[in-house]
Design a protein that fits this description.
Shape: elongated
CATH architecture: Orthogonal Bundle
Number of domains: 1
Largest sheet: none
Number of strands: 0
Structural class: mainly alpha
Distance between the termini: 53 Å
Order of helices and strands: HHH
Low-confidence stretches: none
CATH class: Mainly Alpha
Oligomer: single chain
Length: 89
């Protein structure tokens, strides 16, 4: 299907256009994952595990959420709440 035909189908507000897509090759730009390794002192891992258990998520999930929160705060040029190191650069 040509892009113009797809656009026309979309613009005509057809309820389901997914049959026109090959979802097996779809990808989410800037959301592709890349594996990294990070070494933490054991007290950091224990603290992460405690906080993760308290809110019912995995260690990996809490690390991801906290990193994204920090990156968003940095992008907005404001320190995250409760950050003791935000003044040190």
């Amino acid at each position: 299907m040509k892009a113009a035909d797809f656009d026309k189908k979309f613009d005509q507000d057809e309820s389901d256009i997914t049959d026109s897509l090959d979802l097996s090759t779809a990808r989410r730009v800037n959301l592709e994952q890349k594996r990294i390794n990070v070494d933490f002192p054991s007290w950091v891992v224990e603290s992460l595990d405690r906080d993760a258990a308290r809110i019912g998520v995995t260690r990996q999930s809490i690390i991801k959420v906290w990193l994204v929160e920090r990156l968003n705060a940095e992008a907005a040029n404001k320190p995250p709440s409760g950050d003791a190191t935000s003044g040190a650069r």
